[in-house]
Amino acid sequence: MMAPAGPVQWDTVAVTAHLQRRYRVPVWWDDRAAVWMAMVLRPTGHPAGDEAVAAATPAELERRLAAAGVRPVPLPRQPPEPKSARRSAPPRQAPSRRVLRPMHGRHAAPRPPWWRRLVGAFIQLDDEW
């Protein structure tokens, strides 16, 4: 005797992402109706027009999408990593250059106080002795 099957718990985000990548159509889980939905968008002027497809399970939704004429897109294959994948050192940063500051306005370099500018006008100090 078989045990009664309980409600199936789907990871709706993962299943939705997989179906959208595979079929390139908008897919979502409708909580209120408890069905998987997909919108088959056809080119403008197509005799069949757009179509909403609903199913109880993701596998059934895939069958109905195939019946509606939506072909699955082959998923890109990831190239295998080389066995001798060595982590390289982070790229070296170039030495920072001196920042040029504007000579006027509120972003100008701070000026010496007035008294130092006044003294500097009368006394000239040379670095050479």
Count of helix runs: 3
Distance between the termini: 108 Å
How much strand?
5-15%
How would you classify the helix and strand content by structural class? alpha+beta
N-to-C SSE series? Answer: HEEEHH
Q: Report strand order across the widest sheet.
A: 1-2-3
Tell me, briefly, the overall form: elongated
Mean pLDDT: 78
Total beta-strand segments: 3
Largest sheet: 3 strands, antiparallel
Q: Uncertain runs with pLDDT below 50, 5 residues or more?
A: none
Helix content: 10-25%
Rg is 35 Å
Task: Characterise this structure.
By secondary structure, this protein is an alpha+beta fold. It has a domain at 12-67. The chain is built from 3 helices and 3 strands; from the N terminus they run H-E-E-E-H-H. Strands 1-2-3 form a 3-stranded antiparallel sheet. Strand 1 and strand 2 (35-40) form a beta hairpin. The protein starts with 11 loop residues before the first helix and ends in a 7-residue tail after the last helix.
Characteristic terms for this protein:
single chain; 129 residues; alpha+beta; three-stranded antiparallel β-sheet; 3 helices; 12% strand; elongated
Give a brief rundown of this model.
About 25% of the residues lie in helices and about 10% in strands. It is α+β, with helices and mostly antiparallel strands.
SSE topology:
Layout: H1 12-23, E1 27-30, E2 35-40, E3 51-55, H2 58-67, H3 114-122
